[in-house]
Write a structure and sequence with these properties.
single chain, seven-stranded mixed β-sheet, 7 strands, globular
Length: 200
C-alpha cells in the first residue's frame, strides 16, 4: 500500500442538510440526490488507489447506516465540532503517519489520477492544493514533515478568498505545489460540470 492517507470530508445526503445554495435553486430533494451522486463518485475515486482511505462524516448519526454511500469496508469517523478549518485541522492531526490529503465531495471532475498526482507532489513539496474555480480548493495535502501551527487561522471559508487565506496560514518556508483547477457544485449554474465520467 502507498504510504499515505486520503480523507474524504463527507455529509450524509439528507434533504435540507446539504447543498443549501443549490437547494434554493432546484429544491432540497434534488440537491440531496445530486450530492449523493457526487459523494458516491468521490468515494469511488478515493478507494481506487493504493493508499489508506478514511471517510470523515459531519455528524455522529452518519457513523452508522448509509452503507450504500459510505462503504462498510472504509474507516468512518466523525469530523467533530467547529468551522471547516477546525474540522480539517483535526483530521490532519488524527491521520496516521505520512502524507495526508483531504478532499470534499462536491468536485465532480475529481478522479483517482488527481490523488496520485497529489501524493507525487508531496514527495517534494510541503503542501499541495487543488484550486477551485471559485477561489476555494477541492483538495489539500500536507507532507507532514514539518508543522504548521497557525493552519487555517482566520480563513474566510465559502468565499473567493479561501485558498489565498489558507496559503497565508502556512509557515513562510513551506514549499507549495498545485494541481489543475476544477469546478465544484454550489449553485444551479454549476451543474454543467456534473456529468458521466470514470473514477480513473
Amino acid at each position: 500500500m502507498m504510504r499515505g492517507t486520503v480523507i474524504v470530508l463527507a455529509k450524509a445526503p439528507r434533504a435540507g442538510a446539504v447543498k443549501t445554495r443549490l437547494a434554493a435553486d432546484i429544491g432540497a430533494g434534488r440537491a440531496a440526490a445530486l450530492f449523493r451522486i457526487m459523494t458516491e463518485r468521490t468515494v469511488a475515486s478515493a478507494i481506487a488507489g493504493p493508499w489508506r482511505t478514511i471517510i470523515a462524516v459531519d455528524a455522529a448519526s452518519a457513523l452508522v447506516g448509509w452503507d450504500n454511500v459510505f462503504p462498510q469496508s472504509v474507516v468512518r469517523r466523525a469530523q467533530g465540532p467547529g468551522d471547516l478549518g477546525d474540522r480539517m485541522r483535526r483530521q490532519f492531526h488524527a491521520a496516521p503517519p505520512g502524507p495526508a490529503i483531504i478532499i470534499g465531495a462536491d468536485a465532480p471532475d475529481l478522479r483517482t489520477a488527481h490523488l496520485y498526482q497529489a501524493f507525487q507532489a508531496l514527495r517534494g513539496a510541503d503542501a499541495v492544493f487543488g484550486p477551485a474555480a471559485d477561489g476555494g480548493y477541492w483538495l489539500m495535502g500536507l507532507a507532514r514533515r514539518r508543522t504548521a501551527p497557525g493552519l487555517f487561522a482566520g480563513v474566510r471559508w465559502s468565499t473567493k478568498h479561501a485558498l489565498k487565506d489558507t496559503l497565508k496560514t502556512l509557515p513562510s518556508g513551506f514549499s507549495i505545489d498545485t494541481l489543475e483547477t476544477l469546478s465544484d457544485i454550489d449553485e444551479a449554474c454549476d451543474l454543467v460540470h456534473l456529468g458521466p465520467r470514470s473514477t480513473r
